[in-house]
Amino acid sequence: MCRHLAYLGPPLRLGRLLTEAPHSLIEQARRPRFQTSGTANPDGWGIAWYEAGAAAPRHHRSAAPIWADPVRDEVAATQAAGPVVAAVRLASPGSPVDVSGTAPFVADRYAWSLNGVVDGWHDGVGDELRRLVSRRRAAGIAGVTDAEALFALALDALDDGAPPLDAVASVVATLGARATGRLNVLLTDGVDVVATAWGNSLFARAANGSTLLASEPLDADPGWARVDDRTLLHATAAGLEHPVRL
User: Fold this and answer.
1) In what order do the strands lie in the sheet with 203-207?
2) pLDDT digit string (tens) for 9-28?
3) Could you give the CA distance from residue 83 to residue 80 in angstroms, rounded to a whole number?
4) Please, which pLDDT band fits residue 93 given cuts at 50, 70 and 90?
5) DSSP of the chain, one letter per residue?
6) Does the annotation count 208 as an active-site position?
7) Given 1, 2, 21, 84, which residue is catalytic?
8) 27 DSSP β-pair partners
9) Domains defined for the chain, CATH in brackets
């Protein structure tokens, strides 16, 4: 059911998150410890990051497993100057394994990842939710996954002037009124990160001017703390703000 992470803080090489930490994203793809659905994440991976002075994120996505992507090491050598969002994928039942379903999704200055599933997505719920998306944002949907359509709903809220925290809260409310599922979200605007813990594991660590949010701790640092389920968070490089119960 996927693993993902977000980083805010001083510039760093992406490999520190992807491959070098004791329980880095590649390890979480191969041997997740807290994943309740599936035993690995072989159905693609992706990463979005910001370079100095850039208003929009760069990103790389692949349908190959992170351990088999031939350009992974090239990406890992890249330096990020702003927030990072990365994910490894286990495709939900009924969803194709292709790059269109791989997080993070990017649009304008935003990057988005979903670790979860919307129950009944391929049995009518998806059609109902996609009908709520504006024509402009619907035109940007390339695939058939729940993650991308929910991002489009968040973008509509952002386009209407909602701050990221409220945009994510509105997506959660819209979904909760129509379906059940698991909904761990990461959204960054290139400055801060908004996250939810809803049905899947999420851990946080803030230290030395940086903040990490991840489905599983990247190392044995005692500063990692599990985020309560049904929680909405606003994260900055200085730590976590505005925890809200969903």
Assistant:
1) 58-62, 45-49, 84-88, 3-8, 210-214, 203-207, 225-226
2) 999 999 999 999 999 999 99
3) 7
4) confident
5) --EEEEEESS-EETHIIIIISTT-HHHHHHS-SS-SS-S---S-EEEEE--TT-SS-EEEEESS-TTT-TTHHHHHTPEESS-EEEEE--PPTT---SGGGPSPEEETTEEEEEEEEETTGGGTHHHHHHTTS-HHHHTT--S--HHHHHHHHHHHHHHTT--HHHHHHHHHHHHHTT--EEEEEEEE-SS-EEEEESSS--EEEEETTEEEEESS-SS--TT-EEPPSSEEEEEETTEEEEEEE-
6) no
7) 2
8) none
9) 3-245 (3.60.20.10)
- The residue with tokens 């191969």 is 30
Q: pLDDT tens digits, residue range 158-182?
A: 999 999 999 999 999 999 999 999 9
Any residues with CB less than 8 A from the CB of 222 and at least 6 apart, and which?
none
Radius of gyration of the chain (CA): 16
* Token reading at 193: 């990160």
Token output for 178: 């129509």
Joined together, the tokens standing for residue 5 give 């992470």
Cα 232 to Cα 154: distance, rounded to the nearest angstrom:
14
